[in-house]
Amino acid sequence: MRIDCKHVWEHISSYIDGEVDAELRAEIDKHLETCEICSAVLDSTRNVVVLVADERVFELPAGFSDRLHERLEKELPLAGPP
Ligand SMILES: [Zn+2]
Questions:
Q1: 5, 12, 35, 78: least CB-packed within 10 angstroms?
Q2: Do the beta carbons of residue 1 and residue 23 sit within 8 Å?
Q3: Distance CA 1, CA 20 (A)
Q4: How many CB atoms lie under 10 A from the CB of residue 28?
Q5: What's the 41 CA to ligand 1 centre distance in angstroms?
Q6: Rounded to the nearest 10 degrees, what angle do helices 64-75 and 36-54 cross at?
Q7: Average pLDDT in the 56-72 region?
Q8: Which bin fits 6, alpha (ψ -120 to 50), beta or left (φ > 0)?
Q9: Which helix or strand (DSSP H or E) is residue 17 part of?
Q10: Helix, strand, or coil here: 28?
Q11: How confident is residue 17, by pLDDT bands cut at 50, 70 and 90?
Q12: How far apart are CA 43 and CA 40, in angstroms?
């Protein structure tokens, strides 16, 4: 199985929560080693999750994910359908 950036973003919160299966986790780990963008996304998503958890609010701000994706689309001009 090969995954691209969009797959990583789709699963990133499950990945942080440890809810992805071992195979997918391995693929994401491998991708993160070679992709600076996804590493940055992971870091910032993790920070948001930690901040939110500290406030004992367990929902991400509305639109968070959409905004993130929108920004990533802009910053990833080469990403697109195969
Ligand atoms: Zn990536």
A1: 78
A2: yes
A3: 14
A4: 21
A5: 9
A6: 160
A7: 62
A8: alpha
A9: helix 5-17
A10: helix
A11: confident
A12: 5
Report the distance separating Cα 42 and Cα 48, nearest Å: 10
pLDDT in tens, 35-61: 999 999 898 888 776 665 555 544 555
* Sign of the CA dihedral with 9 first, then 14, 15, and 16 last: positive
How many A from CA of 4 to the centre of ligand 1?
6
Q: What residues pack around ion ligand 1 (CB closer than 5 A)?
A: 5, 35, 38
Tokens of 64: 């968070």
Distance (angstroms) between ligand 1 centre and the Cα of 15 equals 14
For 5, the token pair is 């950036």
pTM score, whole prediction? 0.58
